[in-house]
Amino acid sequence: MRSASAILSVGTLLLSGCTSSFDKAQTTTLTVFAAASLAEVYGALGKEFEAANPGVDLQFEFAGSQTLVEQLVNGADADLLATADAITMDRAVDGGVVSGRPIPFAENILTIAVEPGNPLDISELVSLTNPDVAVVVCAKGVPCGNATETATEAAGVILRPVSEEQKVTDVLGKVSSGQADAGLVYRTDIATANGAVEAVDFPEANRAVNSYFINTVTGTPRSRDAKRFIEFMSTADAQEILSDAGFQPAEKS
């Protein structure tokens, strides 16, 4: 005959196994397509959200906003889309790949990334027209590229970049690696570069502020949890994390 302790031990193991299976069954994973410039801060935001929402895990996919919209149009699977400007989110709305009202949650401003110490003495946008300065920018149609176009038009300058990138992190990478002398990036990108570049602010950047928007992807079966993440982005805790990363609060609509 088995002892009572042996029976209890087996029962405990069975209960433990059932609990583990139950926990796994209750876990929901949200896939978030997010602009490349959000990669650093979304790591911190994700940890905060998951801690406050047990059973919901976040999986992030970062790329240029326009690339993410194209992927969704072509059938990619995601639950949320966060873009770096209103224009790209509008394309997602027009394409039917997101539903509901896009919610603004942050703003970002351009700056000029240069080598530490600014050896070429770059001081404003017109400095980038010097043929001896190798400049890299985001391509037109990319949120940071649209902002660059607005800022240069406001300054009355025409840039002749050595390359045009599909996401702002690639612009930053070319400057930090020495492949370019200067590049137009967001202020938040400077903070993530760990001293590899420094910023040169210019007044026309205030004419090209990019607003970040988030929305649920059409047809997601996890819309309830997706909306919880959207609501979280407007909380004081989330806004503090965004502010610490250099983002500005979104204008209230």
UniProtKB/TrEMBL annotation:
InterPro entries per record: ModA, ModA/WtpA
Signal peptide positions (record): none
Pfam families associated with the record: SBP_bac_11
Residues annotated to bind molybdate: S37, S65, V168, Y186
Key word Metal-binding present: yes
The keyword Repressor appears for this protein: no
Domain of life: Bacteria
Keywords: Metal-binding, Molybdenum, Signal
BP terms from Gene Ontology: molybdate ion transport
NCBIfam families xref list: modA
Family membership noted in the UniProt record: Belongs to the bacterial solute-binding protein ModA family.
Protein's name according to its UniProt entry: Putative molybdate ABC transport system, solute-binding protein
Organism of this sequence: Corynebacterium jeikeium (strain K411)
